[in-house]
Design brief:
InterPro entries: DNA_primase_C, DNA_primase_lsu_euk, DNA_primase_lsu_euk/arc. This protein is mainly alpha-helical. Helix content is 59%, strand content 2%. β2 and β3 form a beta hairpin. The site of iron/sulfur cluster has 15 residues, from α16, α20, α21, α24 and α25.
Length: 621
């Protein structure tokens, strides 16, 4: 499929004709890689859009209606419609919008190949990508199955052939087909059905679930199950293509921009932006945190808050994760300084706090160092981040053993059934789905439709639901911030507030059990390697803490570290800059199908054009 020449035909002969010739149907098997021009910004945008689509499919597979059911398809399409992505546009066939359809189908095509590059690196990534892509095709096929001409076009375009049984064979096997075919229980349902006879190895999914009649090594597959055969063929061809691509991938490393962009693409955050620039207008104060942590914080932040309240210290990773979360939740810099000071100065003197920790907090708010206004961590970043012994940060659904997690959830008032379901999801690696279930269990079964992908999203959903608004929890005592002395004076009342939840919300099943007065780690984590008893905690010295805090004063390293974590976002920015400053060169050339050797040679000249070509070329492998 020559994408470049397709565009030429649009300009010369009219868009409708060209669109029909280039992409005859909305569904694709992505057998031929795209060839044409795409800016780096577009490259990035299309990849992110497809990633969002695949994550939506995964989410509905894990927590939605049964896969393949009408409800499952409807749920997935509901999300596609809401997000207005290119999947929907590929299906809008009308003479007036064919150019849009063409563009959407092109985005579908190109984005698939970009993600092949990002997801071919490891077996685990390949497996995830194949699973979601196959299910995406399944949903789209089932959604368009009413338009039989569309399906016929798809089958013919991809040279797929499924042998139909003859009418004689149909009559001969009629009884067997009636008895052996899933969801066909009467003669009426059998009439008008088309059956395909395929080697049983091509319909293993149907054979495994005993949904088709088998004879002499052949499966008799009704037309209603055709998608199973197509999905099986697609899975095989895509798995093979990804394995080939991964072998050619080292050649992409010559282009550092694209390599960086694709390297951590699977960890790319695709949800709302919770950086302070775009933060909501809500604001919170330190005296609300005790209550909010029990009622509106996700488990990761609740654990950090409880640890801080218990031991009056968090290590670097915990301070970063919790501090940035609080910033995006609406805690001002002054309040943040007061809050951290209040706790830290219980185990160290004020000078030490000012020298070693206050700078760090101001740094997070963009007031020191490079003055970058750092974004709070997304779920993916938290889940994939490293956690050492004694750290309180990270995702509890990933880091806590199932029995301990069940115990902790029970202590928070989650029912036994819900705790078991959550622990099972977590043990299978579905941490964000487990978190979503935890939200439902603690919020009267209210669902977050888009799933949980950011702690601040969890918090803002919870706040919306509780309709607390910025000032709803009545501050017991507003912390004075003008001087250290005033902080000291107010610390007692603030501490009292933090340790004694004052609100009783119906959304939290057991407010008593959620009290932050109980040091969660010391009471529940007694089987983990991070076990710390209360007596040990209170006797812990500054030196003990500082042993792990060597990063505190190395703020240049911190800058570099955070920048590395935000590589994906930075890459997008760089791409945009490059695209705007090298308008002539930041395009994928029509010779993108160059060989890997040619790609390396071209990339060495430093041209953005060749870099993009390299990507397309590798995707062909
Ligand atoms: Fe926090 Fe996300 Fe884990 Fe939930 S899934 S506990 S929000 S990191």
């Amino acid at each position: 499929m020559e994408f470049g020449s397709g565009l030429a035909r649009i300009r010369n002969n009219g868009r409708v004709i060209a669109a029909q010739k280039t992409y005859p149907c909305s569904l694709q098997m992505y057998k031929i890689p795209p060839d044409g021009e795409v800016t780096l910004a577009e490259f990035d945008a299309m990849a992110v859009e497809r990633l969002k689509i695949l994550r939506a499919v995964e989410r509905h597979n894990l927590s939605g209606p049964p896969k393949g059911s009408d409800e499952w398809v409807a749920k997935i399409y509901e999300e596609f419609h809401k997000a207005k992505n290119f999947i929907i546009s590929t299906e809008r066939i009308s003479s007036t919008k064919m150019h849009e359809v063409e563009e959407a189908r092109r985005s579908d095509h190109v984005s698939h190949f970009i993600l092949r590059l990002a997801y071919c690196r490891t077996e685990e990534l390949r497996r995830w990508f194949v699973a979601q892509e196959v299910d995406l095709l399944r949903a789209r096929f089932l959604h368009t199955s009413n338009t039989s001409s569309e399906i016929r076009a798809f089958i013919s375009e991809n040279n797929m052939y499924f042998a139909q049984i003859t009418s004689e064979e149909f009559l001969q096997e009629r009884e067997n087909l009636l008895n052996g075919t899933y969801r066909i229980s009467s003669g009426d349902q059998l009439e008008g059905r088309t059956f395909y006879k395929v080697p049983f190895t091509e319909a293993l999914e149907l054979v495994r679930s005993r949904r088709v009649f088998l004879r002499a090594g052949y499966a008799y597959v009704p037309d209603t199950e055709l998608i199973t055969l197509i999905a099986s063929a697609y899975r095989t061809s895509l798995s093979r293509a990804l394995a080939h691509t991964s072998r050619a991938l080292p050649q992409l490393e010559d282009d550092t921009r694209l390599f960086k962009m694709l390297q951590d693409f699977d960890r790319r955050y695709t949800g709302s932006d919770f950086s302070s620039k775009k933060a909501t207008s809500t604001s919170i104060t330190p005296d609300m945190l005790n209550t909010l942590s029990a009622k509106a914080f996700p488990l990761c932040m609740r654990k950090l808050h409880d640890t801080l309240v218990s031991v009056h210290h968090l290590k670097h990773g915990g301070r970063m994760q919790y501090g940035l979360f609080l910033k995006a939740a609406g805690l001002s810099l002054e309040d943040a300084l007061a809050f951290w000071r209040l706790h830290f100065t219980k185990t160290m003197d004020h000078d030490k706090f000012d020298k070693q920790y206050a700078y760090n907090i101001r740094h997070n708010y963009g007031k020191e160092g490079k003055r970058t206004d750092y974004s709070p961590y997304s779920c993916i970043k938290i889940i994939t981040g490293s956690v050492g012994p004694g750290d309180a940060h990270g995702c509890p659904f990933k880091l806590t053993d199932a029995p301990l997690l069940r115990q902790r959830l029970a202590a928070y008032g989650v029912t036994t059934a819900a705790s078991s379901e959550i622990a099972e999801l977590a043990s299978k690696g579905h941490y964000q789905i487990a978190c979503q279930k935890y939200y439902e269990a603690t919020h009267n079964n209210t669902i977050i439709e888009t799933g949980v992908n950011h702690p601040n999203q969890y918090f803002s959903e919870s706040m919306k639901l509780m309709a607390l608004g910025p000032n709803a929890p009545t501050p017991a005592t507003k912390v004075e911030l003008t001087s250290r002395r005033s902080v000291l004076q107010s610390s007692q009342s603030l501490n009292t507030s933090l340790l004694t939840p004052s609100l009783s919300s119906p959304l939290t099943p057991s407010s008593s059990s959620s009290s932050s007065q109980t040091p969660i780690k010391s009471s529940l984590d007694n089987t983990t390697t991070t076990t710390t008893t209360q007596s040990q905690l209170t006797s812990t010295t500054d030196a003990d803490f500082d042993e792990f805090d060597d990063l505190d004063m190395d703020f240049e390293s911190l800058d570099a570290s955070i920048e590395q974590h935000n590589a994906a976002a930075a890459a997008a920015t760089v791409s945009t800059v490059i695209a705007s400053t090298t308008t002539a060169s930041a395009e994928m050339t029509s010779s993108a199908m160059a060989s890997a050797a040619a790609t390396t040679a071209l990339a060495s000249r430093g041209s953005a054009t060749t870099a993009s070509s390299a990507t397309a070329s590798l995707a062909t492998a």
